[in-house]
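Hey, sorry to bother you again with one of my protein questions. I've been puzzling over a protein and I'd love to understand its fold better. Take your time with it, there's no hurry, and the full record follows here:
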Amino acid sequence: FTVGSAGRVEFAVFDVLGRRVRRLVAADLGAGSHQVVWDGLDDVGRPVASGTYLLRLDGPDGVSARRRVTMLK
């Protein structure tokens, strides 16, 4: 993902009902490209079910990305 300006960034995975499943990033990041890998686990370390999930990137400039992903096992 790419952050347009430096500041607080939160990148998280949500289920289709809008409940947060996993917070992948919650940190101050510099502007530019960054990379994160979701291992298919929730916030407490349990494997998530196969299905559709939503990725949301909140940055210093507001919500900059929303994407759907499919977890297949």
